[in-house]
Amino acid sequence: MTRASVRGPLQWAVVVPVLAVTLLAATWTHHAHPAVLVAIAAVLAGSVLAAVHHAEVVAHKVGEPYGSLILAVAVTVIEVGLIVMLMSSGGDGASTYARDTVFAAVMITFNGIVGLSLLVGAAKHHLVSFNASGTGSALGTVVALATVTLILPSYTSSAPGGEYTPFQLGFAAVASLVLYGAFVFTQTVRHRAFFLPVTSDGDGRVIGVIDKDDAELLSPPSGREALFSLGLLVTSLVAVVGLAKLLSPTIEQGVTSAGLPHTVVGVVIALLVLAPESIAAVRNAARNRVQTSLNLAYGSAMASIGLTIPTIAVAMIWLPGELWLGLNQTQVVLFAVSVVVAILSIVQGRAKTLQGVVHLVLLAAFVVVSVQP
What we know:
Keywords: Membrane, Transmembrane, Transmembrane helix. By secondary structure, this protein is mainly α. It has a single domain, classed as NCX, central ion-binding region (A middle domain of Talin 1, Up-down Bundle).
């Protein structure tokens, strides 16, 4: 991974996070003017790019798969913060914001990030290779998490509709943490080699792993630089949460004015919070590090469910209203097809551009049925 320096006060990656938090503080109570909203949107985009930059610096220091894990957890913090803020403000879609956002994150990671990574990587390198054992275990964990938290509530009978009883919600929260914790232990301690970028032969068959970056790349940043970037990463993510919160009423009003379902708000939120990981995943795919891209994709889906649902479950102690987690029939079908396609894409440990196109078409189908059920 190449590393851009973050030294010097005039570096854009240093200036943007500082500018973002300054703008956030200055406009927190007065942000209704169109010009202010445009400025917020522009700085929000810059904050996303700054977050990607600093996450890559930190990842270069700690190595894989820790770098992917750091970014996945950091982005999930954004998602949780936005969901809690939106739910606390009430509104017609408050009871389903958590479900809509988490499911949108799963579909975007399953089909958007994975699809773009496979398409970009295979288009540039003919075939892309990855460790099917590591990626398959990540996929299996995400499927288990989604089943417990998003699918079962639609079929239980103790609570109405797509709700869980308090006991069931407590179980889902604990189960989510157990599954996520078990996977992190597997990824970072017990079987770390399964999640490292791989080398392959001319036919795309895996022949080894890459434990370190190529020799021609820059040496890792110093501990001081890594800590500096970690601080700026946190600053960028806080700015993204806050600025997205300021934009959320405009997003909700736009969705309502366009006559679109409230589920579209969840899709927009998920697109915002997953932008850093999407950019990082595509960059790694272009460098023929698709394993890292898949770590980011499935790690994001896993963190989105495994950390968001327990946090929301605890927040429901004081948040007003109901919490609907169960998916509708259309969403269940889309998720099931996405899982089948994902299995077929990773089972051989190599992929062509075709797999990327298939995933992206499924993402487009998800967007279409979200906009027009």
